[in-house]
Structures are given as C-alpha cells and as structure tokens.
Amino acid sequence: MTLEKKAALPLAAILGCVLSVNAQAIAVGSYNLYNHPDGSENPPAYGLRLDGLLSGNSSEEYTFDFNHQDSAMTLSYDGSTIVIDGTAFGGEDAGSSYVAGTTAVWTIHFEYEVGISSSANGGVDDLIVNANGANFGSISSNLGTIELSDKASSGTSFRFGDKSGNGHRGFDGISGWGWLMHGSDCLGGTDCENIQYSDWLFTASATTPVTAVPVPGALWLFTSSILGLVAVKRRR
C-alpha cells in the first residue's frame, strides 16, 4: 500500500472528528434574549406572550418587548438547568401599541429543571423540555404577581436551539419557543390555565459561554496530524 493510501484513513477520521464537533448541542453558557420577528401579535414585537394575564380573558393579548430600553432578559444553561430571568416592558397589545394603564416593567423568572434533553434539529442538537406542569416561575410588576408553569404541546413544552440554516419562523439563528400556563396559584396546580397563545417566542445570542464549542481543539488536531503526515513523507 502506498503512503498516500495509508494517509487517507487517518485523514478521513480526522475530518470526521472536525465535522462531528461542529454538529454540537447548544453550548453551556449565558444568552441575551430578544424579540422574535414572527410573533403572531406583532406589532408590537415581543419575546413572551401571556394572553389573559390579569383577567383570564383570552381576547386580551399581553405581550412583552424584550428589545425595549427598560428590558434585560437572559437565559442561562449550566448543563442541567435552564433559567430565564430578567425584566421586560409590556402590557395588553392594542395592535401597534399597548392599552393605556396596562403597561409596566415586569420581573420574569422561570426555571426548567425537569425533562431537559437534546434532540437533533437540522444538524444541531437543540435543548428540549418534555415536562407538562413540572417546571415553574413567575411574572410580577406593580400590577400583580402571577405564577407560571410549563405546558407541553405535542410532547414538548420548550425548545431552545439553532436550526442550522433552516431557520425558525423567519429567523435563521438561535430561538426559544414553548407553551406556558399561568394563574394566581399555578405552583399549587389549582388555578393554573393554558390559553392557546401563551408562550415564549424569542431569539438569543450567546454572551459568556462557560463551555465553548471545542472547534479550535479539533482544528489543532487536524493541523498537527497533517504536519505529522508531511513529516512522515519527508522521512521516507
């Protein structure tokens, strides 16, 4: 067997290693959250929608503007827990603005601890949550405090990921989407309801990943192996 044929096998293995590293799950770390361009009650644009938030009336669409100057929403993932946290300006959606007297800066906190796994989605593994009512949070302002829980839809209550070129509803990048329930006693499960369009719908950008995607290491392996093959050829 010639040197060229001997070199082909390790080279293919190295390329496979590089490609497999690129097809990663969403990285552990922190993300800034923004409005999604394709919300069904847009404008005004939003990253969270909770219909009937204060009254239970589904015709009152409450939306929360993650891009507002008073908003600062983040998502963090440590390998086992997804935490969505921060403040967002919002109120009852009136078309291109909000209903007078319904707006506030809301404090939002939600933790997904149960049912988190990953799933291939267009070449990248998304984080998904399969837990109906097992994860909790809250939203509060001077208008009141309302408890939140997750609501499964087709087996998945929340999904966070990048469709890797396929895009999610017109956004080709990292998005988060998933159904929610809300009520005055949602944690106790006695006054918790799901109104059809109450859900997360945001985009995200990484800020300070704790565990970066290890592409540089794979490229180093690739480069050093190529140099080694060149050295072997020269010796022969």
Automatic annotation (TrEMBL):
Membrane-spanning ranges: 213-232
Q: Key word Transmembrane helix present in the record?
A: yes
Sorted alphabetically, the keyword list is: Membrane, Signal, Transmembrane, Transmembrane helix
Q: Could you say which residues form the signal peptide?
A: 1-23
Protein name as catalogued: PEP-CTERM protein-sorting domain-containing protein
Organism of origin is Oceanicoccus sagamiensis
